[in-house]
Write a structure and sequence with these properties.
This protein is α/β, with parallel strands linked by helices and 266 residues long. Helix 1 packs parallel to helix 2, helix 2 runs parallel beside helix 3 and helix 2 packs across helix 9. The strands form two sheets. The chain has a six-stranded mixed β-sheet with strand order 1-2-3-4-6-9, sandwiched between helices. Strands 5-7-8 form a three-stranded mixed β-sheet.
Length: 266
């Protein structure tokens, strides 16, 4: 099976609720490039008339999303300039999906079980409310694993949700946040034991479905506009440098070889 054939985003509508299910369980729901496109397409269903709330979760109950499937990066060009452009194109591709999620009219509820790392963390941060189980973990350990970079809109969204100091500590140390810490920080709205997850989710969805939809849409759009200034900061030069570096090529190779990368700072 090719990496393009693996994984899918299942889109299901049940009355006023649309569920976007990330399904690539063999790889902890890591997102392939086609899955990103399917997620964007699912947003069209989520914006249909009558939809009051959208749920984003990972399949299988063991992972939300472990990031982007790293095998895609192995296909990047070896020439630094071309690799830098490929990395920039990738970040813009993901950025369009994140922007589409943020533009949803209905509230987006993320259900996090297990890891939400890398691109999974960015998806979790795009949610308006997060419901998480105690085994949920959040992080973007790129400084330890891949040696790439995050674009300004993702860093800005994380800073809005976690606070600037905690966001920088998370990224610079490449450590992860457990569910309890994320809840204390306000990143997670509710914690729920696995046995209680369905009941707690249904109660939250019922509450949102019965709120005034225009009010909720207006509140979401107000937040989006307030956050848009930071998201417009240009970091293309930083992305090109990181993705075009020898360190990034080493990080990808080391990740796929299951070894620790040897950083050289070039």
């Amino acid at each position: 099976m090719t990496q393009e054939a693996e994984g899918r985003v299942q889109v299901t509508r049940r009355g006023p609720v649309v569920e976007l299910l990330l399904d690539n369980q063999r790889r902890r729901n890591a997102l392939t490039f086609p899955m990103y496109e399917q997620l964007a397409a699912g947003c069209e269903v989520a914006d249909e008339p009558g939809v009051r709330v959208v749920v984003l979760r990972g399949a299988g109950g063991r992972a939300f999303a472990a990031g982007t499937d790293i095998r895609h990066f192995a296909d990047f060009p070896t020439d630094p300039g071309a690799a830098g452009e490929a990395g920039l194109a990738y970040e813009r591709r993901v950025g369009r999906v994140l922007a589409r999620l943020l533009a949803l009219r209905a509230p987006l509820v993320g259900v996090v079980e297990g890891p939400a790392f890398g691109g999974g963390l960015a998806l979790a941060a795009a949610c308006d409310l997060l419901l998480a189980t105690p085994d949920a973990t959040f992080g973007a350990p790129i400084a330890r694993t891949l040696g790439n970079c995050l674009p300004a809109p993702v860093v800005a969204r994380l800073a809005d949700r976690l606070g600037t100091a905690r966001t920088m500590a998370l990224l610079l140390t490449a450590e992860s946040l457990d569910a309890a810490t994320a809840h204390t920080a306000g990143f997670v709205h509710q914690l729920a034991a696995p046995a209680e997850l369905t009941e707690r989710l249904d109660a939250l969805l019922e509450r949102l479905v019965n709120q005034a939809p225009l009010t909720l849409a207006a509140l979401k759009e107000t937040e989006r506009r307030l956050s848009s200034a930071a998201a417009r900061v240009d970091t293309d030069d930083l992305l090109r440098r990181a993705y075009g570096s020898a360190d990034f090529r080493e990080g990808v190779t080391a990740f796929l070889d299951h070894r620790t990368p040897r950083w050289e700072g070039r």
